[in-house]
Amino acid sequence: MTPPRDARRKPWIAALLSVLLPGVGHMYAGALERGFIVLCVWWIIVVAMFALTAILPAWIGAFLPYVVILAGLAAVMNDAARTARRAPRPFIPQSYNRWYVYLVVPVLAGPTIFGPIAALVRKNFYEAYTIPTISMAPTILSGDYIYATKLRGAVQRGDNVVYHHHGVKFVKRVVGLPGDTITMRNERVLVNARPTVEPYVTPSDDDPRANWGPLVVPTHSYFVLGDNRGQSVDSREYGPIDADSVTQRPIGIYFSKDLASGAIRWNRIGRNVSH
Fold first, then answer.
1. Whether pTM exceeds 0.85
2. Which of 72, 176, 200, 264 could form a disulfide with 223 if both were Cys (CB 3.0 to 4.6 A apart)?
3. Torsions phi, psi of 161, nearest 5?
4. In sequence order, which residues have a C-beta less than 8 Å from that of residue 91 and are 6 or more positions away?
């Protein structure tokens, strides 16, 4: 009788397979149950990390996803390599120890698992956006990469919010709450006849919308403006927005680059943009 072939596991292959999908490297090493546990723990940690990001300071939230994902992946790769080195000798391949299984599982399981989890994270915790316009300069510049979290708590005057209008998402600043009387005189916003202090505004010398009002913000609505008043399409064009259209609050900048030169703007990374 021919003795079974000793198909020894290579640690470096186990580590590389873990990059495709955490747990697959352990499957390759013959530890199916351990691989399943690693896969579950990996996604629990990822979701928990995004949940924490919603309550952490912006400069921490800007780096936390990268740090946790890279550190966690390194730990998974190391554990898969160790599992391969400790595989029993001789190593007799099981039915799932086939090269095509290691490729098919990530291709099929990846979207099946990642899709619902990504939707869960975006809906409840964290979503990333790339800003293409200068309507919120200088608070948020074109080329800023920001992250936003689910709206929790009451919206206040001066808050920046993410809302959808005609199927498109925007970031603007709330200047009027339900029942407020809003007026603009020489680009200066007055709320209930009182001038507001807006150090974040970029003024415009020739904006035809510099004088208007008064108008009363309807119930269950907000009046929003861009900080770059001369370059923003906002409630001055389409009126107050419905409160239900506000879904998220921008928190911080996790990356930024000048779109013209391609230079990374390191000094902007980690900035809070919620107010």
1. no
2. 176
3. -135, 155
4. 6, 7, 8, 9, 30
Angstrom distances, CA of residue 111 to CA of 17, 95, 105, 107, 227: 17, 24, 10, 7, 39
Clarify whether 172 is annotated catalytic.
yes
Backbone angles phi, psi at 199, to 5 degrees: -70, -15
> Per-residue confidence at 3, pLDDT binned at 50, 70, 90?
very low
Instruction: Give the tokens for residue 160.
Output: 């920046």
Give the integer Cα–Cα distance in Å for 275 and 239: 22
Catalytic residue, candidates 18, 142, 172, 221: 172
Tokens 């990268």 belong to residue:
66
Sequence length of the chain is 275
**Separation of alpha carbons 173 and 161, rounded Å:** 6
Rounded Cα–Cα distance for residues 31 and 61 (Å): 35
The DSSP result for 143-182, as a single string, is TEEEEEEE--S---TT-EEEEEETTEEEEEEEEE-TT-EE
Report the amino acid identity of residue 60: I
Helix axes 32-53, 64-85, angle to 10 degrees: 170
Q: How far apart are CA 152 and CA 58, in angstroms?
A: 16
Q: Which tens digits make up the pLDDT trace of 153-178? A: 899 999 999 999 998 999 999 999 99
| Catalytic residue chosen out of the listed positions 18, 135, 221, 235 | 135
Q: Strands (DSSP E) along the chain, which ranges?
A: 127-130, 144-150, 160-165, 168-176, 181-185, 188-191, 194-195, 212-216, 221-225, 241-242, 246-256
b/e map 17-43, b = 16+ CB within 10 Å: bbebbbbbbbbbbbbeebbeebbeebe
